[in-house]
Amino acid sequence: MKINKELMKGSTATLVLTLLSKEDMYGYRITQEIKKRSDNTFDMKEGTLYPMLHSLEKDGAVESYWFDTEEGRRRKYYKITDSGREMLNLKQKEWSSFMNAMNSILGEECYG
Amino acid sequence: MGDRTDAFLDRVCAKVKNRAAHKYIRGELVSHIDEAAEEYEGFNYGHEMAVNMALSRIGNAEEIGEELNRCYRMPFGRRCGFVIWAALVTALIYLMYPIVYKIYNYTMGIKNVGITVLCILAVFAAVNILFLRRGMIIWSIRSAAEITLGFLIGYAAAVGGLMIASRFYVYGYYPYFTDVKILAAFPYVPFIPKKFYVFGMESFCWWACLMMYLASLRNKRKTALFSFAPGLFSLEDGQIIEDDEFIALKRNGKRISNIWLKILRTGSEDFYWNSELKRKDFRL
To answer: Cys-Cys with B136: which of A94, B19, B21, B39 at CB 3.0–4.6 Å?
Structure first.
């Protein structure tokens, strides 16, 4: 099932920061990981990821560096910073309280 | 890079006013498109088909460009950025005038030259942060008009403020250097007499330097004389501008003499090296 674009928008930064908290990644890999881990549910337009990455970089949540692979490809890797980790922490807390609130309301509706 | 990819990137970059960011954006998106296309080629699609599919997956170029543009907006907004910048610089020049005056007349110790140098660097840093990091300015009648308006506002604010402040010290003289007259101050300006010193010689030199600096941006290059400033104060610009310009010049089919090109390239490489060094060692 495809997720509404607006719904995705608010949570993409959390997804990206979560992935980057595990390891440094480049844009294409991030999109593929999001798709794979969400079992194709979060299949966003890949280009939309970059403005978000750039604004995270501007906010100091991530840093970037170029890396040349052995196959001669240039990739721009993103790395989470300490303030990025703090931001992720906050976002995770925010998300879990949002989810609890949603579940408690939806739960009543769905499970009666 | 294929024509379609190129056209796509042009459409993205057309929306991003900050030309300094174009190189990074292009590089990153090209790498993405190439990898996506390669994935399709792995499923036995032809190269062109694979690129087309990769492009359709990446999304709308204009939307991406607009979103990216939001990340690289100029401070104060594009409408009055010049006015505010020019007003700030003018006010700063007027406030610092007595220091320059005293050095010029040997009434201030040589140690104080350092303060002036720092202040001058601060002015260039402000130029750099406001414009070079954020985006390229292109000389136009409008920008010239905005700079003039900014100058007048900065002049009025600085001189007005100083005159008011001088009432508490020695009227007509700088509050912090009571032996130096406020530039263009009473009683000369209202009657436009013989001594109409709107610009002292020193501040004129500053303005000339700044104008040269800004004029050099007309060609989207920095003059070698000032290339130290972005290197000192910025993280990742300068070198991009030259590269971008070379691409643009090639596309436009304009001819530059080989010698000139070589000089510029050498200059930009040196500058790139300097920036890289600064960035790694002194991340600001």
So the answer is: B19
Write down the domain spans for chain B: 3-71, 77-224, 235-284
Cis, peptide link before residue B190, omega less than 30° from 0: no
Question: Tokens for A17?
Answer: 């920061």
Q: Considering only CA atoms, which of B87, B69, B223 is closest in space to residue B134?
A: B69
> What token pair was written down for B14?
């057309």
Beta strand spans in A17-108 (E): 25-26, 62-68, 74-80
Model pLDDT, residue B43: 85
Smallest Cβ–Cβ distance between A45 and the set B12, B25, B58 belongs to B58
CA distances, A99 to each of A21, A66, A91, A102 (Å): 21, 37, 12, 5
Q: Which of B24, B32, B276 to mutate to test the interface with A (most CBs of A within 10 A)?
A: B32
A48: nearest CB among B29, B34, B59: B59
Crossing angle of helices B22-41 and B239-252, rounded to 10°: 70
Q: What residue spans define the domains of chain A?
A: 5-111
CA-nearest residue of chain A to B65?
Answer: A51
- Judged by a CB distance cut-off of 8 A, whether residue B34 touches chain A is yes
pLDDT in tens for each of the 112 residues of chain A?
666 666 777 788 899 999 999 999 999 899 888 888 887 777 777 888 898 898 888 778 888 888 888 878 888 899 998 889 999 999 888 888 888 888 888 876 655 5
Q: Is B66 exposed, middle or buried (0-12, 13-18, 19+ CB in 10 A)?
A: middle
Q: In CATH terms, is domain A5-111 a member of 1.10.10.10?
A: yes
Closest by Cα among B29, B95, B96 to B67: B29
